[in-house]
Amino acid sequence: MPARSIATATISFGLVSVPVNIYSSSESKASVSFNMLHKKCGTRLKQQYICPKDNNEVVTRDDTVKGYEFAKDQYVVLTPEELKALEEKATSTIDVIEFVPLSGVDREYLEKVYYLGPDKGGDRAYRLLAAALKETGRAALGQYAARGQQHLVLLRPLNGVLVMEQLHYADEVRPTTEVTIPAGEVKDAELKLAKQLIDQTSNDSFEPAKYKDTVRERTLETIQRKIDGQDITGDAAPSSDTKMLDLMEALKASLSKETPKKEKAESKRKVS
């Protein structure tokens, strides 16, 4: 079934305009969530807004306003009209500001991914932009206003399709300097073994289809057993080996464990 467009936009770079359709690049499976129920009768509970200042008075939605905390416990209240005025006007235009090396965009900036397809009359310019980006190894960096916000976006080619990556702004990404790494050295012998382990467990291609969310599958299976009236309290929890090994010992043990897998895979390739 063809993908369904979730929005339309126009890519603008120089004097060139490319009308496009925007598609979701993925379909995330809903996580297994649980509701809060009344233990006595099993009824789903409702949430309420409580005012701690007025003797825990229950406040209805009609009696609420939105405010911004500009200092500790101090708020400035904004009316619906003022909030509306603050919203970024949706232009439906992806304004390309500059072209940057695709390899130079750090992955920690990535927030969301969308696919773009040519809209009516835009297929020629669409193909041209995708080909030019592929040939130059560059990506188009720009901004896109939608749903009251202005997003930083990156356009890159993938199998002839333009991909729009919604990026975090620089002030939204924490610097790596916030992570404390104790001073120390990497020993040559340990590094050699670690590289061997990487080599033995490496794959020449990215194959995400090999992996499944086993926790979600196990949770749904267990819930179904509960629905069917089975006892699930006796299920054994996944075992975890908490034994701490010396780093060198752990590397050697990992290598000996992975070697048969590597040899088996290589022999299979030779046979094929």
Task: Please give the radius of gyration in angstroms.
Answer: 27 Å
Order of helices and strands: EEEEEEHEEHEEEHHH
Low-confidence stretches: none
Oligomer: single chain
Q: What percent of residues adopt helix (DSSP H or I)?
A: 25-40%
Shape: extended
- Describe the sheet with the most strands: 7 strands, mixed, barrel
* pLDDT averaged over residues: 85
* CATH-derived topology of the domain at 7-25 and 87-171: Ku70, Chain: A, Domain 2
How large a portion of the residues is in β-strands, by DSSP E?
Answer: 25-35%
Highest CATH level, the class of the domain at 7-25 and 87-171: Mainly Beta
- CATH-derived architecture of the domain at 7-25 and 87-171: Beta Barrel
Lateral strand order in the biggest sheet: 1-2-8-11-10-9-7
Total beta strand runs: 11
The DSSP helix count reads 5
- Taking the alpha carbons of the first and last residues, their distance comes to 34 Å
